[in-house]
Amino acid sequence: MVAVYIRSDGGIGISLFANDPKMPRKKRGACDANTRRNTLCQAPPVWDKSKDKPVNGRCKLHGGKSTGPKTEAGREAIRESNRRRSRARQALSGEKQVL
């Protein structure tokens, strides 16, 4: 499919390899995450072009909460990172180190 579009510099661009999604952007819905002003985000969700559906229903700024590390090695890496940060914080404040 050939796509013709207007570039940001005002010129005309042509793409020979563009695959347009089947559902128009206006019909994709909105992110609906709560913003800092406690209003709903109106940005479109991140779209999976191959499946023609949203990845997780959230926009690129509100991707959802992290589920954390899944493997024991990942959990141990987080623990060690927290220990290092704690030691550095305690060294700066002069607190007694408790492990």
Question: If you had to describe this structure to a student in words, what would you say it looks like?
Answer:
The protein has 99 residues and is of the alpha+beta class. It has a domain at 22-63. It has 1 helix and 4 strands, in the order ββββα. It has one helix spanning 72-93, and strands at 3-6, 12-15, 47-48, 53-54. The strands form 2 sheets. It has a two-stranded antiparallel ribbon. It has a two-stranded antiparallel sheet with strand order 3-4. The longest helix is centred in the C-terminal third of the chain and has 22 residues, at 72-93. The chain is elongated, with a radius of gyration of 23 Å. The mean pLDDT is 83.
* C-alpha geometry: elongated
**Percent of residues in β-strands:** 5-15%
For the residues shown, what is the average pLDDT? 83
Helix fraction?
Answer: 10-25%
Reading the helices and strands in chain order gives EEEEH
> What is the radius of gyration computed over CA atoms, rounded to a whole number of angstroms?
23 Å
Please give the order of strands in the largest beta sheet.
1-2
SS elements, strand count = 4
Instruction: Give the end-to-end Cα distance, rounded to a whole number of Å.
Output: 62 Å
Supply the helix-strand structural class. Answer: alpha+beta
